[in-house]
Amino acid sequence: MSSASESNATSEPRPKIMVKDLTMAYGDSVVVRDLNFSVKEREIFIIMGGSGSGKSTLLRHLIGLQEPARGTIFYQGASSGLWEMATPERERLLRRFGVLYQGGALWSSMTLGENVALPMQEYAIAGAEEISALASLKLGLVGLAGFEDYYPAEISGGMTKRAGLARAMALEPDILFFDEPSAGLDPITSRRLDDLILDLRDSLGATIVVVTHELASIFAIGDNSVLLDGQSKAMIASGNPKRLLAESKDPRVLAFLTRGGTSRA
Amino acid sequence: MEHVDLEYGRTPDGTLHVALGGDWKLARGIPALRGVLEEIEKQPPPQRVVLETSVLAGWDSGLLTFLLAVLSRCMQLGVEVDRQGLPKGVERLLALATAVPARRNSRSPRSESILASVGDAAITWSRGCRDTLAFIGEAFLALVRLFTGKARFRRSDLLLVLQGCGARSVGIVALINFLVGIILAFVGAIELRTFGAQIYVAHLVGIGMLRDIAPIMTGIIVAGRTGAAFAAELATMEANQEIDALRTLGIAPMDFLVLPRLLALSLMMPLLCLYADLVGIAGGLVVSASMLGISPVQYLLETRHAVGLNDLFLGLFMGFVFGVLVALTGCMRGVRSGRSASAVGEATTSAVVTGIVSIVVATAIITFISYVLGI
Question: Which of B96, B124, B150, B248 to mutate to test the interface with A (most CBs of A within 10 A)?
Answer without folding.
Answer: B248
